[in-house]
Amino acid sequence: MRRFAMPSPIRSAVRVALPAAAMIALLAPAAASAGQSTKVVARQAQNATLGKTVLTTTKGRTLYSLSAETRGRFICTGACLSTWHPLLVPAGVKPKGPVKLGTIERPEGKTQVTYKGLPLYSFNGDAKAGDGNGEGIKDVGTWHAAATSKAMPQPQPQPQPEPTYPY
User: For an engineered disulfide with 67, which of 102, 141, 146, 164 has Cβ 3.0 to 4.6 Å away?
Assistant: First the structure.
């Protein structure tokens, strides 16, 4: 007659732990990427008035940066924010657009989108998509549309030769 060995407590623990560890190893990368969600926050558009291709919000509003806001130094705070609206994303969200975007934490703790290290804003003085009324406004620095490239130069009309016999 054959005897069946009773499983030892250690052997039982190993049989439960190994599959659980394998599941954790398989799910960990998925959970890590799920914690970092992405969101499209910007587009790119030709702005004929400014003569360049600029970043815009998803609704087509021109995005600007302030030349003096470098290396994490914020100038536009307080009353400035009623005119210049920061492009914000929820904490932990990675902004996406036609170019590489980043984020920075504002003094009040919100997460603002950056391009080339400069915080991005929309301007209260732009009434509709495609407006560029904030370009060149001087404050404590100068506001500029976030240009991704210069527009292609328009071809100049070629002079027509004068006829030799006009009559």
Answer: 141
